[in-house]
Amino acid sequence: MNYIPISSKDKKEMFESIGVKDTEELLSLQIPEVLRAKKLNLPGSMSEQQLLSLFKGYAQKNKSDLVCFRGAGVYDHFVPSIVDEIVGRSEFWTAYTPYQAEASQGTLQAIFEYQSIICQLTGLDCSNASMYDGATAVAEAVILAIRTTRKNKVIVSKALNPEYISVMETYIKNLNTEIIKVDIDDKTGSISKDTLNNIIDENVAAVVIQNPNFFGNIEDMQALSEITKSKKALFISVVNLVSLGLLATPAEYGADIAVGEGQVFGNQMYMGGSTFGFMAVTKALEWKMPGRIVGQTVDKDGKRGFVLTLQSREQHIRREKATSNICTNAALNSFAACVYAAYLGAAGIKELAEANISKARYAFDEIKNIKGFTPLFKDGVFFNEFVFKTDKDIKKINEELLKENILGPLSLSQICSLNGGYDNCLMFSVTEKRTKQEIDKLAEILSRV
Amino acid sequence: MNNNKTLNEIKSNRNEEKIVECDVALNANIDDKYKRKSVPNIPNISENSLLRHYTNLSRKNYALSTTMYPLGSCTMKHNPLVNEKIAKFDGFSSVHPYQDEETMQGSLEVMYELQKGLSEISGMDYFTFQPAAGAHGEYTGLLIIAKYFKSRNEKRTKIIVPDSAHGTNPASAALAGFEIISVKSDEHGIVSPENLKQVLNSDVAAMMMTVPNTLGVFEKNIKEITKLMHDNGSLMYYDGANLNAVMGILRPADIGFDVMHINLHKTFSTPHGGGGPGSGPVGVKAFLKEFLPSPFVVKEEGTFKFHFNDKEKSIGQMKAFYGNFPVILKACAYIKALGADGLTEASKQAVVNANYILSKLKDKVKIPAGNCCMHEFAMSLKGALGDGIRTLDVAKRLLDNGYYAPTIYFPLIVEEAMMIEPTETESKQTLDEFVETLINIFEESKTNPEAVHNAPVNTSVKRLNEVEAARHPILHW
User: Fold this and answer.
1) Which of B99, B343, B425 sits opposite A5 (nearest CB)?
2) CA distance B3 to chain A (A)
3) Contact A298 B274 (CB under 8 A)
């Protein structure tokens, strides 16, 4: 298959119009012979049927469709049918970035609705159209803070997702910035006010706190934000959209920037990509925001319409002075989130958050009763993830679970960027998708291994 | 029925039935201080209402599936449907990133196969799939260049970028901590060795080039340019935005490039999604391997594994996990479907299609590329239109005629620019009709300038006020 709808008769007519005898002549007019490549050393073409069978084979080599108790940044939530139906409409997925606004009102209004939903959930004033993922969204938020405050220290929680910390470190390496990592409290698994108070000073550009944090625990964002503000630093909250059905909004505790991973809303896991990152900021930071932003306007007859706006921040206008180099982002993934949130509505998003915490608490209580499992943070308040320390053989646990098609908890010693300290620790994620029966099965296997 | 509402204008119409099932006892009490106070303003509406809302919205989009989309430098080629079908296989979509390697051998094999394909097509030795888009790839490539010089204790602070380059080039170089030097294109729209020599010195780390460039012109001095740069100890970066012109025709690595990114969502047919997800894999020659982000896939004794570079040497991580997997998957399927000959044929036909349009327009407008081009060309509409009519008006009038408009006002070095990239997947009939429409609009701009200036009138909205949108931003409901 090559998808070229041109016959040899067509070609002949085209060559006549161009004034060459064939493609080779056309190329030789432009490319010196010495630069030409040898014939590609790749196999021949395949039919659609052969292709399907080849990729079916690859897919079957994966262990997939497991009952998933693993999270740590990517979660197994249920995706309702309407998401696939709408996002699967080719009018959306085969369109480009909406440069010609009048011919792109579908995409533009969808982005406007997405931005509105992010603003509603975070409480903040301005959302962009999306970032590549949660990790790059955190990195870009930190860059925004450094540039805005012109200060050169950043405080991040040690309970910020290690993948995010790692990407942020790559992104800001050239900015001459010091990164200070705050320890979490052993009992609560969250950052204590005093710890932050002791290390923060006037040279700090931003404090980055994830809530619920990497270990699943809920932070006292209000207190941490107040301390941050007192030193004129920006408070960057890294939040889980699902939790915002229940937990305080970034605006309510005074965050300047809210960012996070959006996969939890309407996107499949796909080995961690493709997902999307979201970013919302206060009105004061609107012009500093990276990425595409859609705004509402009117056409020449006064009819409502939508356009890309505040474009003088962006690379195609400002080139090296742009707020970011981002161009293509993750529009279709953020659109999936938009449709997902629209399907649930405010009431459904609350139900979603409540189902997550309820099921996680049920699972926690079941596991706590099993001999050999102790909660790592005895005073922690968690959302849909929690950590247990165990004296059992972790490898064996997960092997046994896999035999029953269960993807067991994450062994934290596997995450090398945590730099140790979490041997024998298992992190469980329990979303609304897990049934009571599945949780009971998990507990039953854990107790017999 | 009024189909012009925004979502929040649809009244809540669901009954009291729960939408999220919970088969354990509800146990969601938390301390008030952690609790949300406000209720988000998102209506609770039925699936039926929602389906209508978004289906109607979709009808307000022009897309590749509804019309020709000749956006220069964007390679809007047909997105094969079988690739979408493959990407929906549960075997791929339900894999968690922290599964053990043994349980995701299929996905790893797909990544390995794509690396092999891209290596053969580009000549580069190793690839990372972490970058999520072209600009992200540029940033990655530039960090690799910076790290390479750091490892050699060389202080090189500047990146050369031609004035015809995409805006992301200088923006990415700035983000990577470099200073940008712009080099002027000559009268043929290409970089001349003489102009380059004037800005070349020991501070220069690398030069970023798009080949063919954004005018659609092949940089015929490329060999001399890469030699000048390498003699200066500098590296060459290939912006892969225009790779669709050269698959099987020339290989960036063979003609002297050291680092490159590829836009899978352009050359390798994966859909653009209205602005992503994309994928911008970065390829390097072997001497730069140790600087790549971790991990990438290797094959050891028949098993696929993630390889992690030494932490001190690697530039670090660019994105969580391994890359935009569904995009990687679709690109891999595309390469397999076309095979060696199909890929070469795709590029060749892309070049023929662009030249065919050029041959029909060259007597009507000024084309900096001259009489032939690669897979796209830029033209200047200055002097070709009626009084007071601009390129923007022509673009809007094309919308009235059912076409998406080509890229306009880019490259910046062409006055009243319009940049056309038809791709290889359009039929001759479509190309003929497009050209005819364009020529009619040129005529109309003289005979009935008002109609062109008032365009579009056949779209869901008329010309939108962008100035007002930026002056008084309304960014949400």
Assistant:
1) B425
2) 12
3) no
Q: How far apart are CA A262 and CA A115, in angstroms?
A: 13
Cβ pairs bridging A and B (under 8 Å)? 679
Other beta carbons within 10 angstroms of residue B454's beta carbon come to: 16
Q: In chain A, which segments carry CATH 3.40.640.10?
A: 81-339
- Residue of A4, A419, A437, A442 to mutate when probing chain B, most B C-beta within 10 A: A4
Tell me which residue of B42, B51, B36 sits closest to B11, measured CA to CA. B42
CB atoms within 10 A of CB A427: 24
How would CATH label the architecture of B82-338? 3-Layer(aba) Sandwich (3.40)
| H helix intervals, B300-455 | 325-361, 391-400, 428-447, 449-453
Q: What is the pTM of this model?
A: 0.97
Q: Helix, strand, or coil here: B313? A: coil
- How many other CB atoms are there within 10 angstroms of residue B26's CB atom? 12
Query: Does the beta carbon of B48 lie under 8 angstroms from any beta carbon of chain A?
Result: no
ipTM summary value: 0.97
Calculate how close chain A gets to B17, using CA atoms only, in Å.
Answer: 10
Name the residue facing B65 among A1, A91, A294 (closest C-beta). Answer: A91
- Looking at domain B346-453, which of 3.90.1150.10, 3.40.50.300, 3.30.43.10, 2.60.40.10 is its CATH number? 3.90.1150.10
- A245 burial via Cβ count (<10 Å: 0-12, 13-18, 19+): buried
Query: Per-residue DSSP letters for B68-103?
Result: ---BTTT------HHHHHHHT-HHHHT--TTS-GGG
Per-residue pLDDT of chain A (449 residues; tens, 9 = 90+): 899 999 999 999 999 999 999 999 999 999 999 999 999 999 999 999 999 999 999 999 999 989 999 999 999 999 999 999 999 999 999 999 999 999 999 999 999 999 999 999 999 999 999 999 999 999 999 999 999 999 999 999 999 999 999 999 999 988 899 999 999 999 999 999 999 999 999 999 999 999 999 999 999 999 999 999 999 999 999 999 999 999 999 999 999 999 999 999 999 999 999 899 999 999 999 999 999 999 999 999 999 999 999 988 888 888 888 888 888 899 999 999 999 999 999 999 999 999 999 999 999 999 999 999 999 999 999 999 999 999 999 999 999 999 999 999 999 998 877 777 899 999 999 999 999 999 999 999 999 99
Closest CA to A111 of A293, A297, A349, A266: A293
CB-based contacts of B418, cutoff 8 Å, min separation 6: B72, B378, B379, B380, B381, B391, B394, B395, B406, B407, B408
Q: How many Å apart are CA A293 and CA A321, to the nearest integer?
A: 18
- Does any CB of chain A come closer than 8 Å to the CB of residue B448? no
Contact B272, A328 (CB under 8 A): yes
Instruction: Please classify residue A211 by burial: count the beta carbons closer than 10 Å to its beta carbon, then call 0-12 exposed, 13-18 middle and 19+ buried.
Output: buried
Residues A67-78+350-448: name the CATH superfamily.
Aspartate Aminotransferase, domain 1 (3.90.1150.10)
CATH 3.90.1150.10 in chain A: give the residue spans.
67-78+350-448
Determine contact: B335 vs chain A, CB below 8 A: yes
SS3 of residue B410 by DSSP: coil
Domain A81-339 has CATH 3.40.640.10: yes
Best to test chain B binding among A62, A316, A350, A379 (most B CBs inside 10 Å): A62
Q: Which residues contact B443 (CB under 8 A, 6 or more apart)?
A: none
Cross-chain residue pair A45–B372, CB shorter than 8 Å? no
Please report, as a single letter, which amino acid is at residue A58.
Y
Q: Which residues contact A91 (CB under 8 A, 6 or more apart)?
A: A106, B58, B59, B61, B63, B65, B66
